[in-house]
Amino acid sequence: MNILIVRNDRIGDFITALPACYILKQTFPQAQITVFIHPMNQSIAKACSFIDHIIIDNEESVFQLSKVLKQSHFDISFTLFSNTRVAIAQMLAGIAKRYAPATKIAQIFYNQRIKQRRSQVKMPEFAYNIQLIQAAFPNINTSYPKPLLTFDQKETKAMYQNFCDEHGIHKPVVAFHIGFGGSSDANWNVEEYIELAQSIEDAEIDIVFTFGPGDEAFLAKFKAKRGNLKAHIYSSKGSVAQFTQLISNFKLFVSTSTGTFHLASAVGTPTMTFFADTLFASAKRWKGIGDEKLQHHYMIPLENEAKQQLFNQVKHDLQALS
Question: Which among 141, 144, 169, 165 is positioned nearest to 232, based on CA atoms?
């Protein structure tokens, strides 16, 4: 059986699809699991032993995409994130069973439309993805290991040692990632992140501020505002998988609810994460796929006094976790 799973949006969104991919592979070990994904997620997909093949979304036309899909002779597809181009391409490719949420105009091009009402946020995003495959296979075992995303231990240890040697790190790392994207629309500003880091300078840890491609403005502002803060700077130049492998060694990862948070949760790193005080962007919808006991979630309110109270609570909790 050839199975296609479509999740061609951002990093965090793709991570929420991994439990569904794993469950399908465990249920049907002989099946070929193919993911259709955004180019930035290719290295992560390659790191997953339960994913057999990768098709990159190069934003080709609907007809070009249909030809690509047709070559793989898929028996069934699960589209976790849909648009009209992707929907029509699957229909033209002749995929016999095409599952997707019954939302948007694109749903008319699927022959298995599942009512989920994700906007009501009755479960997290990864659970909705699992629910979609349950529509085809009701009796599957939906459990999966946590952490789900793992790397070769020897290779990871060597990578982390090189990182520590290069940056002069000798203690467990508490990392701050101040950039954000995706559905996150709430965050502390750079000065507030610096203040949080200053609150744990005396702990037996090393502080690292991480930055990725597109975070140049955040990096420049951090350098201008850091003052005497004793913190290391790490600018990721490698693949997303390599950055994730590094994160897996950290004691704590502090960030807004962006893709890096989902990566940290997937590899079992404890997280402290900031969400908008709205249902759509909340932790209820976007919690990580990892162990919930390792996830510490905070909803940032809009009202200034309540926001300051939360900031003080975050400081207190950060000191306890460090």
Answer: 169
Question: Tokens representing 104?
Answer: 């948007």
Three-class DSSP category at 35? strand
Return the SS3 of 122: coil
pTM of the model: 0.95
Fold of 2-134: Rossmann fold (3.40.50)
Residue 189's SS3 state is coil
Question: What is the band of 67 on the pLDDT scale with cuts at 50, 70, 90?
Answer: very high
Cα–Cα distance, 73 to 82 (Å, whole number): 20
Cis peptide before 147 (omega within 30 of 0): yes
Q: Residue holding tokens 């699992």?
A: 130
What is the side-by-side strand order in the sheet with 206-211?
232-235, 206-211, 173-177, 252-256, 271-276, 295-300
Condensed to tens digits (0 to 9), the pLDDT of residues 137-155 reads 999 999 999 999 999 999 9
Q: Which amino acid is at 158?
A: A
Q: Is 153-321 the same fold as 2-134?
A: yes
Superfamily of domain 153-321: Glycogen Phosphorylase B; (3.40.50.2000)
Nearest to 250 by CA among 213, 209, 290: 209
Residue 281 CA to residue 50 CA, distance in Å, equals: 29
C-alpha 112/C-alpha 114 separation (Å) is 6
**What's the CA angle centered on 106, arms 102 and 108, to 5 degrees?**
70
Q: Is the dihedral of CA 123, 35, 260, 320 positive or negative?
A: positive
The answer to whether 3 touches 75, Cβ cutoff 8 Å, is yes
Q: What angle do CA 191, 280, 13 make, to 5 degrees?
A: 85
What is the pLDDT, as a whole number, of residue 185? Answer: 58
Domain map (residue ranges) of the chain: 2-134, 153-321
